[in-house]
Specification:
111 residues; 4-stranded antiparallel β-sheet; 3-stranded antiparallel β-sheet; 7 strands; 10% helix
């Protein structure tokens, strides 16, 4: 999103949500800053995916969070809101297929 000449991006690589910001001359790589907003480690610490991803009554073989669908909105005063969602990827005992379980979203507001 562009605001007041600055460019703000919300990006996901699956394991983290981060932002990249450029205030001027955005074609020059050195003018971009970056900051992590959230990681699957913090989601796992707060919400154990094994608790949410049971396979019937059996714990999953593997269960990990995946962070996706980032978005950003910037107010005229420069405050920004970042939104994104997390879902669980799991494998149940006896299966080689990875299943997708819907999760929930978060909003991060930076005044």
């Amino acid at each position: 999103m562009q605001a007041g000449g600055a460019l703000v991006l919300a990006i996901s690589n699956g394991s983290k949500i981060f932002t990249k910001v450029c205030t001027q001359n955005c074609t020059v790589e050195a003018n971009w800053g970056s900051a992590d907003l959230d990681t699957i480690n913090s989601w796992t610490a707060a919400y154990n995916p094994y608790t949410y991803a049971v396979c019937g009554t059996t714990p999953p073989t593997t269960a990990v969070w995946s962070l996706e669908h980032p978005g950003v909105a910037v107010r005229p005063d420069g405050a920004a809101a970042f939104v994104y969602s997390g879902h669980i990827l799991r494998t149940c005992p006896g299966s080689t297929s990875v299943g997708y379980l819907p999760g929930f979203g978060r909003v991060v507001f930076l005044p």
